[in-house]
Amino acid sequence: MPPSPTGLFHVGTVRTMLFNWLFARGRGGKVVLRFEDTDVARSTEAAVEHAEAVLRWLGIDWDDGPYRQTQRYGLYQAAAEDLIAQGKAYRCYCTEAELAEERARRQADGRPLVYSGRCRHASAGELEALAAEGRPAVVRLALPESGTTVIEDVVHGTVEWDNALQGDHVILRPDGSPTYQFANPFDDIAMGVTYVIRGEDLMPSTPRQLALYRALDAPEPVFAHLPMVLGPDKRKLSKRHGAISVEEFRDAGVIADALVNYLALVGWSFDDHTNFMTRPELIERFTLERVTKSPGVFDPEKLEWLNGEHLRALAPGAFVKELQAYLVAAASPLADRPEQVAEAAPLVQEKMRVLGQFPRLAGFLFGPPERDPAAWEKVVKDERAPASLRAAREALAGVDPWAAEAIEAALHAACERQGVKPRVLFMPVRVALTGSTVSPGLYESLELVGRDESLARLDAALTDLGD
What we know:
Elements: H1 11-25, E1 32-35, H2 45-58, E2 64-68, H3 73-85, E3 89-92, H4 96-109, H5 124-132, E4 138-141, E5 148-153, E6 157-162, E7 170-172, H6 180-190, E8 195-199, H7 206-215, E9 222-226, E10 229-230, H8 246-252, H9 256-264, H10 279-285, E11 296-297, H11 300-313, H12 316-329, H13 338-348, H14 358-362, H15 373-381, H16 385-397, H17 404-418, H18 422-434, H19 442-449, H20 451-464
Parallel strand pairs: 1-2, 8-9, 10-11
Antiparallel strand pairs: 3-4, 4-7, 5-6
Helix pairs in contact: 6-7, 9-11, 12-13, 15-18, 16-17, 16-18, 16-20, 17-18, 17-19, 18-19
């Protein structure tokens, strides 16, 4: 798994890493974590630490590493020297101006815009003369100038490239640092990687990278190029679609198992109807053969729905643990009241899609409710609201013991005395108690708020109605 530590983890990057992890774990394979940090200007130590933390949160573990390419420069340089000695690579002294002039000529002639191989075909004396001028040199890999490179991609089937369109690409820069096209396949070879599972945007790199396998007489891996990840509008996933990083979904209250489950479904399916899957089920069922050729669609709404399914599937204790961990991470003031959170959790578990909804759904249990203007407007416009609130208050005042079952009986008796259906009487009571028309179970909520506070909130609502 070779991410580039240059910023937040995009869900597309994590989807690719997840597919690698599922494939390896389901076959007894070995997972190697490698940070491709040769983009020194953009790679940071903070990004590396952040990436490891995100992977641990997701439960995507590794058996070896993490490796850092910036710590392996000596290996790349030694390999490049060996390739030069074997005539499989060469130093190129062409300047940027010369390369630009060459590209312009080739474009004018309608020829492929690849390096001509001028230094490849220069004599030893010519190269020595260029070096004597003090020109900086790159190292280029000598690619086949004719024929084709062919792979049997697990996802896309037979894919073929014309070697004449590839050109001799740079593998070492003048400062001795490797390019992606060199470091990536070299490390895959050195680390015994047998399957290269990556995004299809990297497919054009394949013939150049396979040329290195052949130059090093290394066994070639199996390739599986994954489809792109698109937004719901079928355009490339980006910030215009809202959250696109793992951290944003985690901070909204999506749990790791749900995100893993959903990302597995972006470009892959087990069958035509199964959505909810546990981690062990995903490991057992995942195959590259069921990865689609067409782009996968990342729909945040479907992720939230699936997250709700995972929240409801948690045992009560596990749900409380997830909720309290989320509140701590979010620096919520409710995190300082773990006992009350544990009491409130059963009331909201069936209603929540993300953990971030907890303060809105259950905040009324921890202090005076903040009334939703639209909900209060419904109460104001309900001519029966004052009578309903008075009837509920009178019934609740005599409840003993103050428990959900007794509260339920008292409120239903009040409905009968008023001659109204429960939904008529309960609506203003719910808004007075919670501030919203959408809330956890009314009877259980009244029990947790307590008798005195519940009656006080009903009194406040009656006062505000002018009753």
